[in-house]
Amino acid sequence: MEKYFAEIEGVEYQIEILSDNLVVINGAPYELNFQALRQHLSYSLLLEGKSYEINTYQDNGVWEVLLRGSQFSVQVEDERERRLRMAAGQASKEEGKIILQAPMPGLVIDIRIKEGQEVEEGDVLVILESMKMQNEITAPRAGRTTRIQAKVNEHVERKQVLLVLE
Amino acid sequence: MFNKILIANRGEIAVRIIRACRELDIPAVALYSDADRHSLHVRYADEAYYLGPSKASESYLRGDKIIQLAQNCGADAIHPGYGFLAERADFSQACQDHGIIFIGPKPSSIAAMGDKQAARATVTAAGVPVVPGTEGQGNLPDEQLIALAPEIGFPLLIKPTAGGGGKGMREVQNLEVMPGLLEASRREAESSFGDGNIFLEKVIQGARHIEIQILADQQGNVIHLGERECSIQRRHQKLFEEAPSPFIGSDQELRERMGEVAVQAARSVDYINAGTIEFLMDEDKNYYFLEMNTRLQVEHPVTEEVTGIDIVKEQIRIAAGQPLLVKQEDISLTGWAMECRINAEDPYRGFLPSTGIITQSLLPAGPGVRVDAGIYSGYEISPYYDALIAKLIVHESSREKTIARMKRALEEYRVIGIRTNIPFHQNLLQNPDFLAGNFNTQFLQDVLPPLSAIHQDKTLSEIAALAATLAAHEQSQRSALEIQRSKRDVSNWKWVSRWEQTRE
Fold first, then answer.
1. Which of B22, B56, B198, B231 is the most exposed, fewest CB within 10 Å of its CB?
2. Backbone phi and psi for residue A144, each to the nearest 5 degrees, phi listed first
């Protein structure tokens, strides 16, 4: 038996896989049939007779699920991964650093803050132009900028570090 | 007819034009930048030539290179699509100077609609007010625009002269913020259209955006193909269009009146080819002339669906000097059509562009469904061009049935590997005000509740959690098997036979 924890936007589901055809979700058992189609990007799930076609792929360790026209981001971990994360989580929380990366390649149009400045959650930090649109990169939480690595008029690649928030 | 048509564009619209060329049995020539060698338009075309680096200013905006390539390959006509060079009078002129037919209006019509004086005068004479603004006054420097702003009144819009698609547009609330916004607008316009000229326009509060499609041939026949409702916009970028407009609905008299005004506006500048007259309409059905787009529109398919007329093929026929095959009295609107623009944007995170590789693209199908797309499984979304990757168009007999069909098609359409705005459209199509046809251009900003990542349907969330877990489980089982394989000390054949025995 394998036990997993799946989380969608703060809601956790405990899922135990008892066999290929039997799972327990939050204590309730379900019969199912799960088939991988096409290079493991598409799946067909029959759950208690109901049919679902699912597309899923991993992006940055998160499972992106397309289901009936909706998109879900699911964090999945097994018991061992959970233990490891809990241990690591404690350590990084003490440092509390957020490294803000460019979500897409583009041109840095404006940097709205200075090093050492306090920011609130949602404050616009950087304006990045990509796909002919100007996009606002906002602070994921309140903090102080300790380092600004991007420069105005600089071309940045996806995941390039823009600044560090503490 | 033409010997060969060169398409000075990329993406879905280039594919759309190639399809029209195929059906007319005219060879189509594609051009590509560094980023587009694998793109569909290159693969669908009969011939394709390298244009230049990925940046639009070094490739799709290089009119000189494009004309050179057209001459080298013996193309006698150029279709500009929309965006890029489509509304550049200088490019239309350059084509003419080199003996190449520009599939679009004459340079003088583009220029006339560029300064818009003639069209404004005509619609004013027809008793239709124009939206106040500086559009008729040519290209003014920032100081003059700032001086004129209080006369027009706030809020107002800064719009690029060569514009379209909401690019470079800025809404201005007061004089203080204006200089910075003017600068930002000019910069965005320059990088999108190669033309930093801008003008000011008053914002009409609570207005709907309704536009009339026209066709004009070289023999002097001008007809209109009814209206399109384009009020669903985010930051002045249209996201969803339908024909007819639910606001005009069965008011045939209003439709005819607006159509007549559109035809007059086109005639006033000796317009030839396909064009669109945009209006803003207030709650009392007063309409104001906004502008004329002297090109094919992104949303042209909804008109094609309800009229049965292939606008791109008509454009080509008109440019070749053939008269329109239909008269105004032959045009009637059948049923209802809608278009969802599918953009590589994340609707859960402020519509941030999403780049990356589309690992899979599963198209919707079935009755009344059309997809105009430039993407495919394996397509890489580059940051150089705009975020529109596909248009999903459906047609049915009534608005209600069309909405049901669109919901079904959106559910079937799966683009995997990147984020798209499909969930946004799902959210829109279930909003009661939208369903009632009760919306205007402020709807997305002021009325529609933003898409929540916390899904209403708890059952669906649970299924998603289960599916992700099963996929993760399956993946870890598979990788465990890989490790097992590399560790085993027996020969492969023995191992395979053992493994076979363990299976049923």
1. B22
2. -125, 135
